[in-house]
């Protein structure tokens, strides 16, 4: 102990737990009438949003919900989903569990049981699926129906029947709009629970804490370039990594959250033009939706819109088309375990003078760490030593910092494995460039080993994307008696685009070594998750079937 420690202990006056709840409380006091939420014809100011969150919190407390209790939600991008991000943790430290609305009943039942859910709030769009899940589950939560007054008349299907014991508005009516929410006892307390996709078995429950959520909200403001009063459009599902923490982010700058139930080109363009949207997020499929929209669905707008996208880097042709349409694309990278994206392709103005090929090479990188991520490294997974920063040597991407999950719920073995050696092991393979920028080469499970040679599926996909007719593609390993594995490409062509299997293979040979080129090209729609990510596990199964059919 030194003189800088003695008599200078932490006290309530100088040390309070970090939590994103404080951001909403502050903005509600300063900007009570500024639009906080737009949902169809509804306009709610910050005073109303805070009051609704207080009502939800106090109503849950009145129902016996408290610290460590799980409140599950099956909701679309609607106001109750925003309420839940604040109101649930305000209920004495309860934990929000957002369920993927495209999950099957068995998956939802597993999550409800594993999380020991005490409450389930269900949008009536999903009531039939929820009812099946509840019939399979062992837990018996309080079920609350949300009947959305803004449910579109042109919806693809009608709302389901109520399955709960009360309506969401009735639950809010039980609460107190002047409820005095107390901060978490510890910023390490859990704030939310998100399940991984579970493509190789039961999903793992990723636990976030208040500190990480608060820091990620500030990170998003900085790295997404959110000035005062941004207008954020919900094209990203809020159930996905808590919407990359943007429900907690937007209030920091007194912004407006524009709800969107379905990703449809016309609705997106209308929102951008009518509400002055400045920011949105989404997978590459959302960009395709915008660029390929019919002319009568598109609308002009004067502002440039920041489009944050994760997954594979967008092809240069897509970036150019998005820029022409009024969108500036920011490329991000992260995982559920890192609160969503925690790496940004931060553009260096010095690269503006590079030739197009040089600029494209730098845009293909995932980038550098967010400010609150302490370290981002590419390591040898066996020795935990950094690989040479030469842009060639392959290693595993590892993270360390305050925006890494607490761990996996009720799974100490998986948590210990993920944190081995004091780093979070991502399972992604990458290189480190001399300037400190990381570039993904593949998931460890997606590397194709052909005749003893490692082939990056991403490298093959990048070459395919250079073909003007290719809209989406994915490359996976196909079993081969001769080579062990060979690349197999699955391709969606652009509307009006034409190409043949031999033509695309020849296109690949023009830019890749022969052994890296696909041995087969299969045309047709690609299977995707609800967030637009291509399901490679399904394509690997199809490639295996193709291989069997060829023998």
From TrEMBL:
Keyword Cell wall biogenesis/degradation belongs to the record: no
Segments forming domain AMP-binding enzyme C-terminal: 459-533
Keyword Lipid metabolism: yes
GO-annotated molecular function: ligase activity
Annotated GO biological process: fatty acid metabolic process
EC main group: ligase
Residue ranges annotated for the AMP-dependent synthetase/ligase domain, each copy included: 25-409
EC number(s) recorded for this UniProt protein: 6.2.1.44
UniProt-listed SUPFAM superfamilies: Acetyl-CoA synthetase-like
Protein's name in the database: 3-methylmercaptopropionyl-CoA ligase
Organism of this sequence: Paracoccus denitrificans (strain Pd 1222)
